[in-house]
Amino acid sequence: MATKLASETRPLIQTTFDNGLQVLVQESHVAPVASFWIFYRVGSRNEPPGLTGISHWVEHMLFKGTEKYPQGEFDKAVARAGGMFNGMTWLDFTTYFETFPTERIGLALEVESDRMVHAVFDPEETESERTVILSEREGSENNYPWRLRTELQAAAFQAHPYGHPVIGWREDLLAMTRDDLYRHYRTYYTPNNAVVVAVGDFDGEAMVAQIQAHFGSLPSGPTVPPVRAQEPAQRAERRILLRGTDPTGYLQMAFHVPGARHPDFFPLVVLDSVLGGAKGMGLFGGSPSNRSHRLYRALVDRELAAGVNSAYYPTLDAFLFSFQVTLHPKATHQQVEEAIWAELEKIQQEGVTQAELRKAIQQTKAQFAYSSESVTNRAYWLGFSAVVADTDWFFHWLERLGAVTSEDVQRVARQYFQRQAQTVGWYLPDTH
After folding, report:
1. Residue 373 structural domain
2. Is residue 252 located within the same domain as residue 165?
3. What b-and-e string marks burial along 101-114, b requiring 16 or more CB atoms within 10 Å of the CB?
4. Residue 176: pLDDT above 60?
5. Helices vs strands, H then E, count in the chain
6. Of 13, 8, 12, nearest to 31 (Cα)?
7. Does residue 2 carry a pLDDT above 70?
8. Which of 34, 143, 363, 386 is most buried by its number of CB atoms within 10 A?
9. What pLDDT is attached to residue 432?
10. pTM score, two decimals?
11. For position 17, what pLDDT does the model report?
12. What is the CATH number of the domain that holds 363?
């Protein structure tokens, strides 16, 4: 599957313009479509206390239009051209994309280069969007697994801004001003802090020239403030107890693990597959692919849980390897927690079998292929990889995954899953 994918695309063209803009272009002639992405190296990781959620809010504001494309005009143009577009904010980045029939991809370049420097940030629209984002956050708060995850993440980090929710804390969203937002925009949404990616049915050199025409003359921005926070090693178990009106019980656990560039990243990916099922690791990777993974057998098959999954994301800095469980009505939180630890300790003591290792790697490779086969998905993967690691990380992903041994999996299980380093969250239905 991966070989077929490689044969459908041409070599990647990489260049950096004089203004600092990193450009990635790859031809793919499987369909008459093209996808254009722009990644800004700014997310919740770059937000100090008092300004949490500002990147997500700025992301919203860039949809509010420019003088050239007033609000709603780009939406109409995309609809007329038969395309799709969206934007999102995450821990390490903010991104926007457009996918069009190839002959209309120039519209994406025109809009993204325009709003990189000419977003309006109208004061009335800014206030209106405050209400929208607060409403979005309140909607999430009605979901107890989200609330438990937010509390757990905040407890897991003492120093690093990964402890803040991407949407921000409510108090910061109430206090931020239009000037705060505009200053953030001018600091981070600049050519020298961005990666643009184009993948599709076009001539690669001609696309580079087209990107140069739209972005090459834009002024470079200021030096981006570095993220200096270093998370101290966790030496004490931390626990969260949340109560509420949802009658279902939930349990979450998290452990600090390295980011995407670390040599232990790929053994941890395989461990994630063994414990919670293979995943695509990217935005479009899909859900775990089977019910034979260890946690499903240990919890769901034994009627301790109605559902269970693990999660490990590629990130720029060290983040979390986590577990999320929806309890079976007859199970207790202590039973579930002990069952998870029983599986972790089995791997720590006995490792994983060769058959289990082979299955985990094969299924993860398949998920990787599924999540990077279309021009939209592949462009996402290239830009995402450039932000959290580099493009070499992407192109050697399958090779490095395939090189993981059972000894590697056992070693990382021993190293990172320790009781004094866990953060545990219980949600209990309030019976009063």
Report:
1. 238-429
2. no
3. ebebbbbbbbbbbb
4. yes
5. 17, 11
6. 8
7. no
8. 34
9. 58
10. 0.95
11. 98
12. 3.30.830.10
